[in-house]
């Protein structure tokens, strides 16, 4: 690549970042993709790692393998600590990265709304570390319960409170119920797994906000059929001594709390030194540029974009369509042509609540039950990266469906680094993510 070619730095190898570099790989540009992880994560199946149905390698794919074919794209694994907008460079623990154009697709993080107790005690479900920590925790709770004679202590240990009735909370609650009632029931013969209780707490009056009321009702019915206690119109005030405290004064026993009640724009947004919008998202121009820095674009969960006055949701199609818009606008910017404002086309949404139960809404059409579930399965299977992963996911799903068996019921804890091995990138310095809890 000649020296005079402009450098585009893309932060984040998630849905926005990967879509963008795919769109730009034939352009006369030097593209540097930077991420704190060396993999691209397929978040829609993360709850299946947390519920012991899939292994991490089936939903995460090495970024360098994705980029192999793209000769103008380089990858660097690093956590971006700071952004110098005036000097056009990024600060990482390994050194600085200069850019001519910058696209920030750094996503979002779990929002505990400033509650320090929840942030340390509750389990999020946002990245691979979260999902593994959750899988370990669920399985460890059952192992521990099998040692305990006292019935009330055992019930407490086996009480799970999922906070948030969005797709992640609903899907995880459904999958956890099936793990316990169909699989762990056979593993833990010394335990009466019916003592386990899953409660889903939602601040609104129904699950799956944004879905048609008939689909919300179908999802709620399915969850109740699975024995999940639903508590609506209830806000969580905090956590104390293994109890979830609700704002209306109620207390819920909670051996494990799973927090899926919201996300906020990733911490990189704060580094820009600009006023932030709702949920820590960065307000951008209709062309997705920063108003004062037209060479900087923000896309995906981190960008605050409104259409017809409505804030766009933090979902994959928004991130991917914004990436396509930025690819067009980068080209236009270099050629001195007019830039295009972003227009979102909603392709619809879908969620599953466990075997034979899904809800789908697609351009005015609605499906639920078995048909919705099959549509969810086919769509998600096709989205998984690589043929190998698709086959393994299919085999795991089939094994679970026909034999009520989940293959990855391991409590696997990572050990510290071996003394003789070289330190990993960024080791010993401020790291990208906290160590997994177990
Ligand atoms: C459990 C779960 C399930 C979901 N299911 C669905 C679904 O079914 N359908 C749907 O449409 N959406 C779903 N979503 C939402 C979807 O994942 C996001 O909207 C989408 O990933 C946003 O894309 P993005 O490119 O903005 O960010 P991401 O895909 O999150 O990518 C951000 C990347 O930036 C990197 N990064 C962050 N900060 C830094 C830093 N400082 N330095 C270096 N790298 C950094 C991260 O490591 C990450 O790789 C789900 C989300 C979760 C958590």
What does this structure look like?
The protein is α/β, with parallel strands linked by helices and 438 residues long. The protein is 33% helix and 24% strand. It has 13 helices and 28 strands. It has a 6-stranded mixed beta sheet with strand order 5-2-1-9-22-21. α1 runs parallel beside α11 and α6 runs antiparallel to α7. 42% of the residues are buried. Flavin-adenine dinucleotide (FAD) binds next to α1, β2, α2, α8 and α11. The site of flavin-adenine dinucleotide (FAD) has 34 residues, from α1, β2, α2, α8 and α11.
List keywords for this structure.
single chain, 438 residues, alpha/beta, 6-stranded mixed β-sheet, 5-stranded parallel β-sheet, 13 helices, 28 strands, 33% helix, globular, disordered C terminus, binds flavin-adenine dinucleotide
């Amino acid at each position: 690549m000649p020296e005079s070619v402009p450098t585009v730095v893309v932060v984040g190898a998630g849905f926005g970042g990967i879509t963008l570099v795919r769109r730009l790989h034939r352009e006369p540009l030097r593209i540097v993709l930077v991420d704190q992880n060396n993999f691209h994560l397929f978040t829609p199946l993360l709850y299946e790692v947390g519920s012991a149905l899939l292994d991490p390698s089936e939903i995460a794919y090495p970024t360098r393998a994705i980029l192999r074919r793209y000769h103008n794209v380089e990858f660097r694994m690093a956590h971006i600590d700071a952004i110098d907008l005036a000097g056009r460079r990024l600060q990482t623990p390994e050194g600085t990265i200069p850019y001519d154009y910058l696209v920030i697709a750094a996503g979002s993080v779990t929002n505990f709304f400033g509650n320090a107790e929840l942030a340390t005690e509750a389990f999020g479900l946002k990245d691979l570390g979260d999902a593994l920590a959750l899988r370990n925790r669920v399985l460890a709770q059952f192992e521990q319960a099998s040692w305990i004679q006292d019935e009330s202590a055992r019930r407490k240990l086996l009480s799970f409170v999922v906070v948030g009735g969005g797709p992640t909370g609903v899907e995880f609650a459904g999958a956890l119920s099936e793990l316990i009632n169909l699989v762990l029931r056979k593993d833990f013969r010394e335990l009466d797994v019916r003592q386990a209780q899953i409660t889903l707490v939602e601040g609104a009056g129904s699950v799956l906000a944004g879905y048609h009321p008939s689909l919300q009702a179908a999802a709620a019915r399915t969850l109740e059929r699975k024995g999940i206690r639903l508590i609506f119109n209830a806000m969580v005030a905090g956590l104390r001594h293994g109890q979830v405290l609700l704002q209306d004064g109620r207390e819920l026993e909670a051996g494990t709390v799973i927090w899926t009640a919201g996300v906020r724009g990733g911490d990189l947004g704060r580094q820009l030194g600009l006023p932030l919008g709702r949920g820590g998202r960065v307000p951008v121009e209709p062309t997705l540029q920063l108003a004062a820095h037209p060479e900087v674009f923000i896309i995906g969960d981190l960008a605050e974009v409104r259409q017809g006055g409505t804030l766009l949701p933090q979902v994959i199609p928004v991130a991917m369509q914004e990436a396509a818009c930025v690819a067009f606008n980068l080209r236009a910017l270099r050629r001195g042509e007019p830039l295009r404002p972003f227009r979102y086309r909603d392709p619809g949404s879908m969620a599953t609540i466990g075997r034979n139960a899904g809800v789908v809404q697609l351009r005015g059409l609605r499906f639920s039950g078995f048909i919705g579930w099959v549509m969810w399965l086919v769509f998600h299977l096709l989205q998984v990266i690589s043929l190998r992963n698709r086959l393994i996911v299919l085999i795991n799903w089939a094994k679970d469906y026909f034999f009520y068996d989940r293959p990855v019921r391991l409590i696997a804890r990572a050990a510290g680094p071996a003394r003789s091995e070289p330190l990993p990138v960024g080791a010993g310095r401020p790291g990208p993510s906290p160590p997994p809890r177990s």
